[in-house]
Amino acid sequence: MTRLLVVDDEPEICEFLKTFFEDRDFQVETAGSGEAALKSAETFCPQVILLDIKMGDVDGLEVLKKVKQANPKVKVIMVTALETTDKIEAAMRLGADNYITKPLSLEYLENDVREKISSLAAKP
Amino acid sequence: MIPSERRPKRILETLLPFFTLFVLSFTVLSLAIYLVDTRFPNLVNWHPLVWIALIAAFTAGSYPSIDQFYGWLLRRVLFPERSQVPHFLKHLSEEIRATTDLSELANLLVNSLGEVCQFKTVSLSAREPRGERYVVISAHGWNVSDYRKVRLEATSPLVELMKAAQPKSLLREKVIQSLSWQESNQITVHFEALRATCVVPLWVKSKLVGSINLLASSSEQALNEEDLLMLEEFGREVAPSVWKALLIDEIQKINRELQDSRSRILQNAKLTAIEQLATGIAHEIHNPLTIISGKAQVLLLQKDRKIYDEKVEEVLKTVVKQTRRAADITKKLLMFSRASASPREKLKLETVLEDTFSLIAYQMSLEGVEIERLVAQDLPDFFGNTQELREVFLNLILNAVQATGPGGRVQIEITFHKADKVFLLRVRDNGPGISGENLERIFNPFFTTRTDGLGLGLFVTQQIVHRYGGSIRLESEPGEGTLVVIELPLEPEAAPNAVSVIPEKGGKEFHDTASGRR
Q: What CATH number has the domain bearing residue A25?
């Protein structure tokens, strides 16, 4: 089962994403802050992380940098409310694997997550 | 510099001295014969050739003074034509003093001097009020494109010489004689650049504000001391008017620049305000919208779900669709703000058009609108952002389609104008057209004639086009359909904060083609 970590400071967003992906046989954990996300990344060892770019305590970019440092193989998809290119560009430079803008299209998101997993399987 | 000399005077000038000489010689000869006959009879025996030689010597000796005498008599007493020139110059300087428009004044000066005094070329060079250079602003006898390029630096030897000779004018021949070979070569270059043999300076107090540069049509027309004095006097009279017109012209220029920058600042301030607002709204609103739409999608996409009531399913779909529409508002507002300056790359406009088209082809087929695409062969690559350009095409096509309604015709044309290096995008529809009143407001944000539209489509389109240094215009008459023409330069200006291209794997976004766009 694929382990997916959802990081967003909006609990409702975490909740519906958890419901959606669990319905599709993913093992999902959620984190409401950057702090929690880093902890979860360590203990839960997710294969894919959905990471909100802007959060209260720790910036999404900061989390991205740390999780990629700890485990370069983890796939990170950035979630952003705004397509401000400087942030997205910075995220891509830091090794993010893709980005998606809010409001989310769940069908597109699911396809993207599955694509990342199959690329993981292809290059172990 | 005399205006054309009249024929009768020339004839008189030639004939009178001869006639006088003839009379004089005859008198002298008669007198001599008489004297010789009465007093010195022994001299009568002189050889006739001696007499002839004597008379010839007398004639030759007295000719120049007689000729000079008649010259003076004709020019000064009988036909005082020279007085016409000072009169004309006085009249011209009065006229010039009454003129404040620089180009009008300059043209009047060079053309009047050129035509009346028949100089080969006359030009007026003037000091740049905000600079030190002297620029030819108008000329008689040369091409406009030629004289526009002629500039003298404040440090150029000719300008220095004019300053040294204040307030006298400079004659090329005299100047060259007084200089070393090398210096005279330099000066000749400058005289030739001005196409002049004589330069009359224009002084306002101790400031050299310009010069009148003259080239005589022939060597006969060479200027004498008197002419120069007259021209210098003319220069003194018109110099303050030339300087005044220069200053007025400069003030007008500065005023225009000021107005331009003021409207730019206002525009920027407006944009920054909208940008901040949009950024704030996007952050605050996109999260709740994500939740609303997300939960509806979870229900719609649930596996092994029970079949919903048709009405419930319809409501859920509407929720998803309408949240996207709401998000579209902030996205569009951000489209033109600097925060969203988009990465650019080499692309093909025709490909962007095809992509856009495939996005909406299905909807178009439902609307029953016939769309014709005319794309020129071998279009060069364009350096732009696919998303932005897609937005432009999408807005234009949807506007046209919505204007024509079912059964309408829309024509999209992309051509490239080689000479101007400009892409031309034309979108033509056969819809009801736009009234003049609405046409004026069509690019205003939130202006719309539809109940379901946001009124941001054309506004955003215009912003994007401007960001590429291009232009957009609408031509429409009620009942005649509408034509939108966009010009995009091949080498667009750099976008503010334009960033380099991000990897191709970038995310995708939804295009809610149903949302209103004009």
A: 3.40.50.2300
Tokens standing for residue B80: 């005082």
Query: What residues contact B397, with CB distance under 8 A and at least 6 apart?
Result: B356, B357, B360, B371, B410, B412, B427
Q: Are B347 and B212 members of one domain?
A: no
Indicate if the pLDDT at residue B175 is higher than 80: yes
Q: Indicate the residue type of B514.
A: A
b (16+ CB within 10 A) / e for B203-230: bbeeebbbbbbbbbeeeebebeeebbeb
User: Which chain B positions have a beta carbon within 8 Å of A12's beta carbon?
Assistant: 291, 295
Q: Which residue has the higher pLDDT, B355 or B517?
A: B355
pLDDT tens digit sequence for B365-379: 777 888 888 999 889
B228, B94: one domain: yes
Q: How far is CA B140 from CA B195, B232, B234, B493, in A?
A: 11, 19, 18, 39
Q: How far is CA B295 from CA A31, A53, B95, B302, in A?
A: 19, 21, 83, 10
At residue B269, the pLDDT reads 73
Domain that holds residue A82: 2-122
Chain-centre distance for alpha carbon B89: 32
Cβ-based contacts of A19 with chain B (< 8 Å) = 298
Domain with B456, as residue range(s), is 342-489
Whether residues B366 and B463 share a domain: the answer is yes
Q: Does B248 touch chain A (CB under 8 A)?
A: no
Per DSSP, the residues of chain A read -EEEEEE-S-HHHHHHHHHHHHHTTEEEEEESSHHHHHHHHHHH--SEEEEES--SSS-HHHHHHHHHHH-TTSEEEEEESS--HHHHHHHHHTT--EEEESSP-HHHHHHHHHHHHHHHHH--
Q: What pLDDT shows up at residue B326?
A: 86
Question: Could B286 and A81 be called an inter-chain contact, meaning their C-beta atoms sit closer than 8 Å?
Answer: yes
**Rg for chain B, CA atoms, rounded:** 42
CB of B322 within 8 A of CB of B284?
A: no
Q: What is the pLDDT of residue A51?
A: 94
ipTM of the complex: 0.91
Residues B349 and B399 in one domain: yes
Taken as a whole, chain A contains a residue count of: 124
H helices, E strands: number in chain B: 14, 13
Q: Touching check for A111 and chain B: CB below 8 Å?
A: no
- Which whole-number Å values give the CA distances from B352 to B32, B340, B375, B382, B473, in the listed order? 112, 20, 12, 11, 21
Contact A83/B at CB under 8 A: yes
Q: Is residue B312 part of a domain?
A: no
Give the number of domains in chain A. 1
* Token output for B156: 């150029």
User: What CATH number is attached to the domain comprising B420?
Assistant: 3.30.565.10
Interface mutation vs chain B, best among A54, A92, A102, most B CBs within 10 Å: A102
- Beta-bridged to residue B212, according to DSSP, are B124, B200
Does residue B143 sit within a domain? yes
